[in-house]
What we know:
Helices cover 30% and strands 28% of the residues. The chain contains five helices and eight strands; from the N terminus they run βββββββαβαααα.
Amino acid sequence: MTSKPFRRKIYTLVLNGQKFSLYLDGYWGLILRTEISINAEVLYSQIWHTGVNKYLGLSGTGWHLTRWRNEAVEDLNGLSDKERRTLSTEFGLPICTNYLELPYSNEESFLASRCAIKVRDWIKMHPIVSKRLLNSGEKVKEVFELLGVPTI
């Protein structure tokens, strides 16, 4: 019997009725999910606008939450410009309009976000669960190290 990856919800942000939930996950590390999306690794995701429908996973043109540069995981066309900016600043997701702008990782914008503060606070408030998460995977260890949280 295989065990289910260990995951804990950190918090949820609601924009235009769409819930964006942040999790610390033993397999994926730090992920952002909605009710219908697949895992978007926060440190490797961005908000991207495209006028063409030729990239992997895009369901159409416009705004999308993408991971690993151009793999769309969520349609964001229902959000206003202000809501997309809020999503960007809350989770440290760069907003890109050109394929050449898409970063591979976004550690700097993540560290400057409210999300980083909330994750750090959650880890301090839940030391036993945090230690269990830390022992469940390398990606979680990378998040702890990036945030400057002791991993011993």
